[in-house]
Amino acid sequence: MKTQSKYLQNAKFRIENKKWLSYSSNIALRVLAALEESEEMTQKSLAETVGVSPQYINKVLKGQENLSLQTIAKLSEALNIELITFPKFLFDQPINKVFKTISSKNRVMKIEK
Asked: What is the pTM of this model?
């Protein structure tokens, strides 16, 4: 049996992981923009602040690293920028209303299936 070429393997990987790769590249662009705007922060100092290696930051900036929420939060804090935003309507409502909204959406999804 013939093995797939590296190109085809990479293409298959990109297709299978399209969504998180898109998120990762968007985060990379925002981190790069923040680094360019900052006069003090370099890739090396960002790595030290976040507690990772400079090589890891390099991978992050290529937009192909599957980032954990913890890493995203640390990058966000270090650069003083928001990398992920959440729908505001959920946070402006009392907690009981949020749970009712979520549970009613779950019921609708079950009915539609």
From this structure: 0.69
